[in-house]
Structures are given as C-alpha cells and as structure tokens.
Design a protein that fits this description.
2 domains; alpha/beta; 5-stranded parallel beta sheet; two-stranded antiparallel ribbon; 36% helix
Length: 242
Amino acid sequence: MLKDIVKGLVDLVYPKICIVCRKKLNGKSSVDSLVCMECWVKIKKNLPPFCCSCGRHLEKNHFTKHVCPACIKNKLHFDRAFSPCVFEGVLKELVHEFKYKGKDYLGRSLSRLMIEFIQEYNLPLHYLDLIIPVPLHNARLREREFNQAEVLSNHIAATFNKKVLTNNLIRHRPTRTQIELDEENRLLNIKGCFSVKENRDIKGKNILLVDDVLTTSATSSEAAKTLKNAGANIVFVLTLAN
C-alpha cells in the first residue's frame, strides 16, 4: 500500500508524458508508458506488395516486375530486406529520440514492431543461424553510448531464441551520417568501411542483419557484401523502417 502511495505522489509531481505529443499518459492506453496510443496508431506501416529486393512497398505499375525501380538500377548484396514501417511522422520522431537523445529504452517498444512483422508475414527466422547488428564506428559508439541496431537485435533474439553475434563485423572507418548525403555520395561514403574479424564465425552461416532504417540500402548492402566475402551463405536484412 505504501508503494502505491509513493508511486501516486511521484506521478502527481512528475507525470509521465508521451514522448511524441508530450501529453500526459494514461498507463492503460499507452505503449510501455512511453507513447500514447493516439500517437502509436499513427505509425505508418509498410504494406504489401513488397519489392522482392529492398522490401519497400511496390506501386501498382511495378506489381508484375516484383521489384522497385531503385533495385533494378542498383546491385544490392543482401538477398532480401524487410521493414515493418515507413520512415516518416511519428516513427521518424521516435527513431530520432531513440538514436540521438539517448533513449535506448525505446528499443523495447520499437523492436515490438519488428517482432510483430516477423510473426505476421512468417519471415523464415528458423533458417537463420545468427543475428548481426550493423555496427557503429568506435568514435560514434562512444558518443552515443549504445548501438541502436544491437538494442533492437537483442530484443528480437530473445523472442525467437537466436544468437546475436557482435564485435565480429567491424566498422573500421568512420563515415558521415548517410542522411546528410545524396545517393551517389552515400555509396562512396560507406564503401569499404566494414571488415570481419573471424571468418570462421561467418562461413556457411545464414544471417539476419539488423539496423534501424533502410534508406538507399547502401549501408546494409555494403555490410552484406563484407559478410558474404567472409563466407556467409544467405544474408537477409531487417530494419525498423524504410
């Protein structure tokens, strides 16, 4: 009873508010007491049909080709990518809070979107041996204090009983934030920035590569190329949004 009284006083003095709209939260109608349901339901889902390469929604005039114009133009090194959400609006704001405002605890809520997508579309996780988060360069990791891809990976792995392999795929060269660059410079920016420490941990393995956002696919493609050069068999990519 004393615990409930203390909690009530804390909530009275420091009421919990939605990370997005800043309105006071009602615990029963919020996600993890972080985001109100009114904001959460505004997250735009990535709906089928999907491009068979990058996983983006296909517009009607590309249904018969099963691939979007960007993937026809660019050679991607992963076998297929998947994303449950579209990177705009509420989701974009939540990712910004997650990555740049130190709110690593948002990973639990955001990973739920990825887990539900895996379950809804029966993604073949049972064929995959490892989950590998796209790494940050050490300088960026020190600045941010956590790798958002690793946080998401850990929640997914715990749900599906998979192993997360960290510190083997390395980002050995610092790169500029991809969002600052146009498509051509994103490819140049990321080229050759990854390496693998131990090929034996990768050789012959089917891998799920996890990151937060797929933009031009340059980062995920370069990471997949590095893994395949180290002997990986299949590399699927799962991101929170595209």
